[in-house]
Amino acid sequence: MVDGTLAKKSSEAIAKGSKSFALSSLLFRPHMRRHAHMLYAWCRYCDDVIDGQNLGFGETVAAGQEGAPDASELKRLWAETDAAYSGETPQTWQFEALQAVAMETGMPIHFVQDLLRGFEMDVAQHSYDSLEDTLRYSYHVAGVVGVMMAIVMGVSPDDDETLDRASDLGIAFQLTNIARDIIDDAAIGRVYVPGDWLQEEGVRPHPDDVGAEDNREAVWRVAMRLLDEADKYYASAGPGVRRLPIRAGFAVAAARGVYRDIGRVVRVKGPRVWDKRARTSRRRKLALAGIGCLQGASSKSLSFMGMPPRGNLWKRPVIKGLPS
Fold first, then answer.
1. pLDDT tens across 251-290, in order?
2. Domain that holds residue 82
3. One domain for residues 176 and 314
4. Which residues, including other chains, have CB under 8 Å from residue 86's CB and lie 6 or more apart?
5. What is the pLDDT of residues 120-148, one digit of tens each?
């Protein structure tokens, strides 16, 4: 497949799978946008294989039910990832996209493998008994995507301080997703919110109980706690914009504002928020993107300052000395 076709397919994938990210990525320089779209296409493909979806819009099959992806699908993703990094000809265009990104940006394989470990948690029907469990999952399915996107934007794979902030933003996004999708996830047999938080509200951490109408207010209170936690990671991620090229920084600041607004919608609508999927209107997205650009410009003006401490936020695993 010629590079132009690969880039076109990747752009089409992001346009269908993530309108918010597609909007923000318009601020990237062309080569950076191409890499970001190709990386997204591979991430989306792997996620769809595990969830049984098509660009996030298919019918998801509950883990453990007939038709759910088994370990063989995950094993295939691992094998194709290893093959792509070994220089073998990929079997799908999405892995061709991953291979191109890896070659052109020097993306270390252990970050790619961290994402696959998140899919392992879904296939294994991992139990999320505490906030620690939820944060670890959020890193593996989203925080590490933030790390990889930062590398696409030119951050060194060895710049742990900046990559930590990129991870924080991905974790914040995922915690927002979990809060927004609690009831939908329960409907397909999944519970990602901390089990001990549910138990404190008198709700058994089981999909049937989480999805029960009688427990809606208690579950909403748990969602509020999760959004409060997400806010800590959004705040920590903000200063990381200083370390990005200016246009990339604008894009990330815009995406941060747009996605954080989903949490606002969940808060404002209260326990009935799950009657209809929480969304931000296109007009509001554009306004928030503009505000994000202004915030990004303000942050860049402070680039001479050091990075403020992250405090006691969850720490991503850092692996040194591995080959790319």
1. 888 888 888 888 999 999 999 999 876 555 555 444 444 4
2. 1-108
3. yes
4. none
5. 999 999 999 999 999 999 999 999 999 99
Note the pLDDT of residue 296. 46
Instruction: Give the chain's domain count.
Output: 2
One domain, residues 181 and 314:
yes
Contact call for residues 210 and 235 (beta carbons, < 8 A): no
Identify whether residues 94 and 156 lie together within a single domain.
Answer: no
pTM over 0.90: no
HSE value, Cβ hemisphere, 13 Å, CA-based, for 195: 12
- DSSP string of 190-233? ---S-HHHHHHTT--SSHHHHT-GGGHHHHHHHHHHHHHHHHHH
Torsion 79-81-83-86 (CA) sign: negative
Q: Which domain CATH number covers 284?
A: 1.10.600.10
- DSSP code per residue over 47-67: HHHHHT-STT-SPPPPTTSTT
Residues 134 and 280 in one domain: yes
Same domain, 209 and 311: yes
* HSE value, Cβ hemisphere, 13 Å, CA-based, for 299: 28
Structure tokens at 240: 């990381």
Residue 19 lies in a domain: yes
The CA-atom distances, in angstroms, between 165 and each of 230, 231, 314 are 13, 13, 11
Domain boundary, last residue among 81, 108, 135: 108
Q: Is residue 120 part of a domain?
A: no
